[in-house]
Every structure is written in C-alpha cells, then in structure tokens.
Amino acid sequence: AQTVTQSQPEMSVQEAETVTLSCTYDTSESDYYLFWYKQPPSRQMILVIRQEAYKQQNATENRFSVNFQKAAKSFSLKISDSQLGDAAMYFCAYRSAGGNKLVFGAGTILRVKS
Amino acid sequence: DTEVTQTPKHLVMGMTNKKSLKCEQHMGHRAMYWYKQKAKKPPELMFVYSYEKLSINESVPSRFSPECPNSSLLNLHLHALQPEDSALYLCASSQEFTRRETQYFGPGTRLLVL
Fold first, then answer.
1. Chain A residues in contact with B98 (beta carbon < 8 A)
2. Per-residue pLDDT of chain B (114 residues; tens, 9 = 90+)
3. Tally: H helices and E strands in chain A
C-alpha cells in the first residue's frame, strides 16, 4: 500500500519570503500522480499543483513550484513571495495512474506573518 | 468551470434523525466521491461512484447510505448517526479514465450530531 508522509505539522513564513513544505511517499509503482492541495480555514480545498511521475520536469504554477525527486520519492512544494492568503493547511496526495483513490499525507499548517 | 456545490453548508441533527447531504457538479465528470474530514486531519475516503455505480465502499457503517441519482448528483443519506460522526463531509468529482484526472472538491457540509 502507498503511504504519504508530511513531516512538518506546522510551518511559518514571513510575508514576501519563500517557504518549502516537505512530502515523501512510498510506492512500488512507476506510474502515478502527485498533488498538493490547499485548504484555508473553513474554506474549500483547492488544487495547488499536480505532477505526473513520468515527467522529469518539475511542475510550476505562478508562485508555486515543486521539487520532484522520483528516485528519492520526494515531492516538496516551494511557495515564493508568500502572501497572507497562502495561510492554510496543505495536503500532499498520491494517486496511482490506474486508480482513483487519493492517498493523503497528514497535512502541514502554514502560517504567514505580516 | 471547476465547481462542485454542496448543500447544506451546516447541519445539526439528533441521533434519531434522518437527513441527507447533497452534492452537484456540472463538469461532465463521471466519478464522484464522499469524504469525511475531522478537524486538522486529512480527508478519509468513504465512497466512490463511477458512471453512477458504486465502485468503492471503504467499509463505511450502514448508517451512511450513498446514492447517485444521475451523473451530476450525489447524495449521502444519514440515519441514526453517532456524535463521533460529527465532521466535515466533502464531495469531490473527477473525470474517469484520463491520465490527467484531478479531483475537485466542494466546500463541504459541516455536520454536528447531538
């Protein structure tokens, strides 16, 4: 069975600075997808970024980028120029290419200081 | 349009009540999901519907009864719930059988069982 580990329960970042959230996963599969979801307090969970395992190029979405290290089974999220609106719980998630079940990590609470 | 809607937003019910949660999407997605989420925890998968048929039941107690009347609607019928069932119930949807499948989440129904 696949597992996803987020080892940082909480992180803090100063507004306008950069922060990296860590995620590692365990799988014996070679074809899969990785996701970062953001869930602000009492608000909707939204997709931040997605990475296909067969693509070596790291995904980027504006201020959000990932460092995908397939051999190390690592998938970290970098948030540049942090904004107050980035404060949220961030979940890393894994999905097999042939399945539709998401395996979530425990989450990291990100606090942004002004 | 990546919108999944859920009603009601909040629900308070007694242990003898019967209530239903509703979820709707108009993205043409053929897979729909129910998750249960406790505070500061990741979502836990409950049910998956694929092409209006129940494809995954994660050993959920029978007091939760899902229903998929058509490809756009998903219901969760609740009966004789326990206080420990109090949680945020999330609905999600995704395309099926595409490599770029991503789950999109609704805002959730916050349920309190007294």
1. none
2. 568 999 999 999 988 889 999 999 988 999 999 999 999 999 999 999 999 999 999 999 999 999 999 989 999 999 999 999 999 999 999 987 565 678 999 999 999 999
3. 0, 12
Q: Which residue has the tokens 């404060």?
A: A87
The length of chain B in residues reads 114
Question: Would the CB atoms of B102 and A50 count as touching at under 8 Å?
Answer: yes
Residue positions counted in chain A = 114
**Residue A77: how many other CB atoms lie within 10 Å:** 24
Q: Do B40 and A109 touch (CB under 8 A)?
A: yes
Helix (H) or strand (E) segment spanning residue B20: strand B18-25
* β-bridge mates for residue B44, sequence order: B36
3-state secondary structure B48-79: EEECCEEEEECCCCCCEEEEEEECCEEEEEEE
Residue A84 phi/psi, 5° resolution? Answer: -60, -35
- Give the residue numbers in B contacting A (CB under 8 Å), as ranges: 31, 33, 40-43, 45, 48, 50, 56, 90, 94, 96, 99, 101-108
Task: Give the amino acid at A105.
Answer: G
Give per-residue pLDDT as tens, A5-35: 999 999 999 999 999 999 999 999 989 999 9
Alpha-carbon gap: A14 to the closest alpha carbon of chain B (Å): 22
Burial of B39 (0-12, 13-18, 19+ CB in 10 A): exposed
